[in-house]
Amino acid sequence: MRKLPLFLLLLVSSCGTSELWHEPVECRLTGSISGMPPEQSLWIALPDSYDIGTPIPVADGRYAYTLRTDTLRAYELRIGTRSSYTPLDFFPENGTVTIDLAWDETGKFIPSPIGGAGKPNRTINDFKKEKDAKFGRLYDEIYAKLNGLQRERRFDSPAVDSLYRLLEGRLSHEERNGIYRRIDELRLSGEAYTPEARELLAGKDSLDDRSREWTRDYVAAHPSLGGFFCLVQNLRYDRLQHKPLTAWLELYDRIFAGRFAGHPYHAVTEDFRSSEQVRVGGRYIDATLPDAEGNPVRLSTLVEGKVALLDMWASWCGPCRAYSRQIVPVYEKYRERGFVVVGIAREFHDLTDWHAALTQEGHPWPELVELDDANGLWTKYGIPNAAGSSFLIDRDGTVLAVYPSPEELDRLLKEKLG
């Protein structure tokens, strides 16, 4: 699911340094709706939830939802479709939280302030005003120029244009995976963009760095639960952008490690800290997960002393399942030489679809499952907003490759196993 960049999100910053975050809260979330496109809907979810969340009914130009929780943390009101939505963050409080929703005549969503709930959520207006005053116009200028290049077809390089044209044809999942992989490689190298686009993107990167620095200063000056949430969201965003997390983690250690004892944000932060090690040259992270019969299995018992591929997938992810099929021949080629594959599926709500997928795919390797992100494994592996990926692990636990193609996997295994 695609989210808007963090600088477009709204921050709700609670006031003071109260440690009372685990008392019962009953919050009535409501608001008016004007001009919402017919294909869009509303949901409520935790910000780190890959699942779309709980639907909120809309009737007579209004919506309403009662949220009950005994853990005070931010939630998202998600507006859009299942594949692309705008998240609005808010903290539930006893009483009513109001977020009015409106779209202009072009269908563009118009953010509005949160009101009616008291001081913690009212502070959003101050934060938004400060950040917009400092960075809003600069980002608007850059995005206007980038959008102009896209309209004039001067954003993507000829190499990427040709790949997108290939995607318009009738292709298998495997063929599409290969094309998307090549596009990703070109974007990481910068070859996906025209010189004009690269110059603008470099300017945006510089502005992002300034925005990050300003936000860290803001969070340090607001050591509240809202500030803690802002830090966690920036960890999540920068991890998705493959940016270093060091400065955010240092800020956590200095400001928040000793505050809000036991709050879930501490565990999430440590999961992101762990994700820093899951890189080529780093180490894999162990976990205990259930197998298809519900028996707990320690991952290390399956991979220790072997060259192993962790195939992280989901029953509802077509490209993931296509990738798994592609590596079956590679597995059969090297399995007798000490190569193992362990599948780990990311599932939500129940395991019915997973069991059906296992029967349909018939993977010849052990399969484990992460239900409802119980272990935070996708965050620990640095892919919180992804359906899947894969990690090639050496005998000593060192990460050899991240999401290797079948061809790259074959080459690496030939080097390691002969």
Descriptive notes:
- It is a single chain.
- This protein has about 425 residues and is of the alpha+beta class.
- Helices cover about 40% and strands about 20% of the residues.
- It has 12 helices and 18 strands.
- The strands form 4 sheets. Strands 1, 4, 5, 8, 9, 10 and 11 form a 7-stranded mixed beta sheet that branches.
- β14, α9 and β15 form a beta-alpha-beta unit.
- The longest helix has about 35 residues.
- It is globular and about 65 Å long.
Secondary-structure map:
Elements: E1 25-34, E2 41-45, E3 54-55, E4 58-59, E5 62-69, E6 75-80, E7 85-90, E8 95-99, E9 101-103, E10 109-110, E11 114-115, H1 119-151, H2 158-167, H3 173-189, H4 195-221, H5 225-240, H6 246-256, H7 264-275, E12 288-290, E13 296-298, H8 299-303, E14 307-313, H9 318-334, E15 339-347, H10 352-361, E16 367-371, H11 377-380, E17 389-393, E18 399-402, H12 406-417
Parallel strand pairs: 1-8, 1-9, 14-15, 15-16
Antiparallel strand pairs: 1-5, 2-3, 2-6, 4-5, 6-7, 8-11, 9-10, 12-13, 14-17, 17-18
Keywords:
single chain; 418 residues; alpha+beta; 7-stranded mixed β-sheet; 5-stranded mixed β-sheet; 18 strands; globular; disordered N terminus
State the low-pLDDT regions, or none. Answer: 1-18
Overall outline: globular
Pattern of helices and strands = EEEEEEEEEEEHHHHHHHEEHEHEHEHEEH
Hey, roughly how much beta strand do the residues contain?
A: 15-25%
Instruction: State the separation between the terminal residues, measured CA to CA.
Output: 40 Å
Question: Structural class, please?
Answer: alpha+beta
| Average pLDDT | 90
Total of DSSP H or I helical runs spanning 4+ residues = 12
Note the main sheet: 7 strands, mixed
Radius of gyration: 23 Å
Kindly state the number of beta strands. 18
Helix content: 40-55%
